[in-house]
Task: structure prediction
Amino acid sequence: MRVEKVNLLGLTREKLISFFKEIGEKPFRAQQVMKWIHHFGVDDFGAMTNVSKALRAKLQEIAEIRGPEIVSFDESSDGTRKWVVRVTSGSCVETVYIPENGRGTLCVSSQAGCSLDCSFCSTGKQGFNSDLTVAEIIGQVWMAVKSFGPPASSEVRSVTNVVMMGMGEPLLNFDNVIDAMNLMLDDFAYGLSKRRVTLSTSGVVPNLLKMIGKTDVSLAVSLHAPNDELRNELVPINRKHNLQALLAAIDAYMDSLPDNSRVVTIEYTLLAGINDQPEQVQQLIRLLKDVPCKINLIPFNPFPHSGYERPSNNAIRRFQVALMDAGFNTTVRKTRGEDIDAACGQLVGSVMDKTRRSARYEAQRQGSSEVVKIVEQVS
Ligand code: SAH
Ligand code: SF4
Result:
């Protein structure tokens, strides 16, 4: 019987230490191997020159370093990069890299599909498919970093920030997301600061409370409505955990962070005529008056049959100015990578189309003028 190999890509430092102990090796091997995997993007034990030949041979037998299966890769004219990767369940998820002002932000998926069914989200429309493994989550960072070539100069950091804002609700894949975020923060892996790793949740209150003491990453909350009645409609999990419970949980998490200068990011997708009216901005101001936060307005990204529209630029600006006048630091998310369908909420429909298209191109193996490219290997 063929024994399944352990994928070392998905093991936290603690788990890798246990792995080496179990095979009779010293704990320091974990650090050595982590550096090869995450710092140098190596997926071949043979390349690990500071590991003895005997151990390399043993590792080859029982373990592997298996990155994501890349279905397609696009690069937008604005530098945004988008990968579609296939996960174990057979579904596809997306990873998007957004370069801006000297930062490189990677938007990472945590689940294939999502069970929470927010009314304006294309991932929600797909329903839940599967949880990503730790290797599949951290593999997205591994793949993105690797796509910039070998880290010859440590001054150039391709990925400086990670946001758990791709497909899925990260708090519903709790353990795997926590392990993957620990790897993002670990100096032997990606060494990102806790301020530069952000978990976004639509408000899974019990699991938000469970984060306390387990991690100290930055928090973003998808609010989208200033009262329970509207939020029940837009973000159905609000029927289970209402605004009052959500605000209390945010407060508890933020309070648990040692550094009290940190603030929660409130995400608010603007839907024309639904939640972008003067009355709602006033309600929002009242709701958030005691919440140390910054507000990120996301103009709705339309997708077919959504039933919603993006507000006019004037309406967006009016909403922003009203919040700023009330003293809130408020930004409007720019749409990036529109030419490759990499904007928020544009994911699923186009993933399906492109997966089909990519399969066709793979079969044909012909040069193509399409933006979609099959990437067999990330160099
Ligand atoms: N499930 C998590 C994280 C992923 S979504 C969450 O909901 O927070 C990242 C952000 O994009 C969320 O704020 C989400 O509500 C928003 N979003 C989803 N679909 C969108 C769309 N079509 N247009 C604009 N924002 C959208
Ligand atoms: Fe799920 Fe987030 Fe989409 Fe809601 S907005 S359906 S929680 S991915």
Remarks:
- The radius of gyration is 21 Å.
- The chain has a mean pLDDT of 89.
- The pocket of S-adenosyl-L-homocysteine (ligand 1) is lined by residues 118, 120-121, 165, 169, 200-202, 222, 267, 269, 298, 300-301, 344-345 (CB under 6 Å).
- The first strand starts at residue 6 and ends at 7.
